[in-house]
Each structure stands twice: as structure tokens, then as C-alpha cells.
């Protein structure tokens, strides 16, 4: 089409709108994995099983034991801007779920073959339902409560995207990393990943007893499973403010104050790459300059050159004080007051790094 002429303004067809949206959200198989695991966790799942074929390009299947989707709502779940997670602008200002845009399933349907197998946990139906995303056909089928979303032949309709994919091994590694990011924030949920019929990663559910620092113990266990003993053996516990119960996000009065907890590696554990820097805001994995800078500044005097500190830091704050609707993949957030977050993270990591030294000094004096 010549670009030098004025052309009529047309409304794009729905399918094309979804494909454009998919371009923002789905870069590679790991993006689909992330969205589907988000949904499983939002549905209260305690066990999530991911099955992949050919690095996820041929098949991505995510099975959960969450509360399922009611038959009458199943076709709506695949529509654009259809969500059970927000209903008003007010809800958007205080998001408590991983999802809220109602775009992921519709976007994925526009670039792959999707089917959803689900049964609610309400016990009012004797079987589940299978929805074929392409035909819209709904069939009764056997399964226990929960949902399985199957995505086949990703990017079949967009060969340009398909060409950007790397080898199966590389795509698999990205998929595993996507699940790991969820797993490190949810020790009480079990995860398993299968690739071409082989179990490639498994993180068993850890019993979380929130009383008396149990959340840090559960987290320690999950970090040891998810990142390896090396990570945790060289890390110190982070908990700020010092009198807060780690992992407890709201006080008895329901008020959510700013908190930071997790584990930070001792300076000797620093690496040449920044691959072991995990930051979460209200349970969501983020790439955040404020948190990154604050953590880095706590290591200022003890790390030299380009050594990268390692950490898994969990920031929780009142959801009205953070905007999660700034990026289609929600990997970036905007704090209402980034200074308070920066100071909290800085103090939290400072205190954690100072603690073992002062303990050692105290025992040396005794
Ligand atoms: P969002 O997560 O932003 O709401 P999605 O397109 O990812 O949008 O999902 C649309 C809706 O489908 C969700 O709001 C939810 O009600 C339902 N849904 C999707 N996946 C699951 C699942 N695994 N278990 C239960 N409900 C689900
Ligand atoms: Mg979602």
C-alpha cells in the first residue's frame, strides 16, 4: 500500500487487535508460561504442573488444582478484556491478583491453538468441561477440580515471530526461569516442569507456618530448592522493620505497612552476572530500578568493580501505593513514593549485612 496518500480510517477486526496485543505480551514460549502460571496462582492453586514440548513451541500445558472456571463463564474467559479480577477503576487502584487486564488468554488464542479443560471445586458438577478455543465447542469431560490450559503451535500464524525463537534448549531454559520466578515467591505452592516427557524441574510445596519467622524458614527452603544450596548458604536473612513478622503483609488492623524481607548474599557470594537478583513487589516479580539501586547501594563499600550482589528481596506495601498497570507484562511498577521504598530496601539490606559481622564481633569479645 502506498504510504504517500491519505487512506480511510478503518476499525481493525477483533482478531487483529488481539494479535497486536499478543505482540506486546507474548515474546516467546516463556511469556505464555508466565501468564498461565499467573492464572493458576490467582485461582488459588497449590500445585502447578507445566508440560512442554519442543521448548514450548509445540506444546505448553499448565495444569492447576485451583478453583476452576464455571462452564457458563468458560467461553468468556477467552474473550478480550474479560476478567474476574477487577470490575471498576477503584479495583484497578488496589490490585491483589497477578492478572487484571483480561488480555492474556485472548492474546494467546490469536497466535496459537488453545484448549481449556476445567472443573470447578464447587462439587455441583460430576465432570469437567473441555473448550476448544478455535471452534468454541464445549464438551463434557472427566477431570478433578482445577484447570488445564493447553497451547499448541505457538506463532503458527505469525511466522515472523517464530523466526526469532532460539533453540528448544534455550526456550526451555526461559520457561524454567519463568516458573522459578513464581516459585521463589510462593514456597507453599508445589511446581513441576516436564519437557518432552522428562521431569526437568520440581519444587515441592513447603509448609509455611507464619508464626515466629516460619515464613523465612519456608522461603529459605524454597530458595535452596530453586536456586541451590550455594545461594542460601552464603545468604543472610533480611527483615525490615526489625519487629515485623516476615511474610506477614497486613497487621491485625488490616493496614499494610511497607515491609522488606528475604535473603541477601554476603559480599563474597557476589557474581560477575546479575542473574541472581530477584525482586518482588506484593508477590510479583519485577525489574525495578528503585529496588535494584537501593540493594546495590547497601553493598557499596563491600563490593568492588563490577561484582553483582545476589539477593531475593520481597517488598510488600499497601497496593494503593504502587501502580502495577504501567507495562503490558507487568514486569515494571511505579511507586507512589519511591524514596520510602528505596530507604526501606537500603536499610533492610544494610541491617542484614551488618548483623553477622556484629554477631561475630560480639562472640570475639566474649
Ligand atoms: P486476567 O488474568 O487478567 O483476568 P486472563 O486472560 O489471563 O486475564 O484470564 C481471563 C479469566 O479467565 C481470569 O480472570 C479468570 O477468571 C479465568 N481464568 C484463567 N485461567 C484460569 C485458571 N487457571 N483457573 C481459574 N480461572 C482462570
Ligand atoms: Mg491472567
TrEMBL record:
Coiled coil: none
Keyword terms of this UniProt record: DNA damage, DNA repair, Endonuclease, Hydrolase, Nuclease
Family membership noted in the UniProt record: Belongs to the DNA mismatch repair MutL/HexB family.
Residue ranges of every copy of the DNA mismatch repair protein S5 domain listed in the record: 223-354
Superkingdom of the source species: Bacteria
GO cellular component: mismatch repair complex
The species this protein was found in: Hydrogenophaga aromaticivorans
Glycosyltransferase recorded as keyword: no
Residues annotated as transmembrane: none
Any one GO molecular function term: ATP binding
Stated role: This protein is involved in the repair of mismatches in DNA. It is required for dam-dependent methyl-directed DNA mismatch repair. May act as a 'molecular matchmaker', a protein that promotes the formation of a stable complex between two or more DNA-binding proteins in an ATP-dependent manner without itself being part of a final effector complex.
Residues of the full protein shown: 5 to 370 of 660
Name of the featured protein: DNA mismatch repair protein MutL
Entry annotated with the keyword DNA repair: yes
Example GO BP: mismatch repair
Amino acid at each position: 500500500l502506498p504510504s504517500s496518500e491519505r487512506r480511510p480510517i478503518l476499525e481493525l477486526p477483533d482478531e487483529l487487535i488481539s494479535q497486536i496485543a499478543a505482540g506486546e505480551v507474548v515474546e516467546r514460549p516463556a511469556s505464555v508460561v508466565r501468564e498461565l502460571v499467573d492464572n493458576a496462582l490467582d485461582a488459588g492453586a497449590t500445585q502447578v504442573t507445566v508440560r512442554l514440548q519442543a521448548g514450548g513451541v509445540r506444546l505448553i500445558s499448565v495444569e492447576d488444582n485451583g478453583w476452576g472456571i464455571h462452564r457458563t463463564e468458560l467461553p468468556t474467559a477467552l474473550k478480550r478484556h474479560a476478567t474476574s479480577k477487577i470490575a471498576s477503576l477503584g479495583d484497578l487502584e488496589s490490585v491483589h491478583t497477578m492478572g487484571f487486564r483480561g488480555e492474556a488468554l485472548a492474546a494467546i488464542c490469536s497466535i496459537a491453538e488453545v484448549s481449556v479443560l476445567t472443573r470447578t471445586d464447587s462439587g455441583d458438577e460430576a465432570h469437567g468441561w473441555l473448550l476448544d478455543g478455535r471452534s468454541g465447542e464445549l464438551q463434557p469431560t472427566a477431570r478433578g477440580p482445577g484447570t488445564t490450559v493447553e497451547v499448541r503451535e505457538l506463532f503458527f500464524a505469525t511466522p515472523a515471530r517464530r523466526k526469532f525463537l532460539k533453540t528448544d534448549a534455550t526456550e526451555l531454559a526461559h520457561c524454567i526461569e519463568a516458573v522459578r520466578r513464581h516459585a521463589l515467591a510462593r514456597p507453599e505452592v508445589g511446581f513441576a516442569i516436564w519437557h518432552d516427557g522428562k521431569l526437568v524441574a520440581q519444587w515441592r510445596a513447603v509448609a509455611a507456618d507464619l508464626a515466629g519467622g516460619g515464613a523465612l524458614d519456608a522461603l529459605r527452603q524454597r530458595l535452596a530448592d530453586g536456586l541451590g544450596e550455594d545461594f542460601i548458604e552464603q545468604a543472610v536473612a533480611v527483615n525490615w522493620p526489625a519487629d515485623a513478622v516476615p511474610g506477614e503483609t497486613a497487621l491485625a488492623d488490616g493496614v499494610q505497612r511497607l515491609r522488606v524481607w528475604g535473603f541477601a548474599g554476603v559480599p563474597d557470594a557476589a557474581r560477575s552476572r546479575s542473574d541472581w537478583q530477584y525482586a518482588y513487589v506484593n508477590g510479583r516479580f519485577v525489574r525495578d530500578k528503585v529496588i535494584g539501586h537501593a540493594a546495590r547501594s547497601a553493598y557499596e563499600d563491600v563490593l568492588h568493580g563490577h561484582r553483582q550482589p545476589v539477593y531475593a528481596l520481597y517488598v510488600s506495601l499497601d497496593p494503593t501505593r504502587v501502580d502495577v498497570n504501567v507495562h503490558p507484562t507487568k514486569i515494571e511498577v511505579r511507586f507512589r513514593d519511591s524514596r520510602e521504598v528505596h530507604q526501606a530496601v537500603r536499610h533492610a539490606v544494610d541491617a542484614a549485612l551488618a548483623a553477622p559481622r556484629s554477631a561475630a564481633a560480639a562472640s570475639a569479645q566474649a
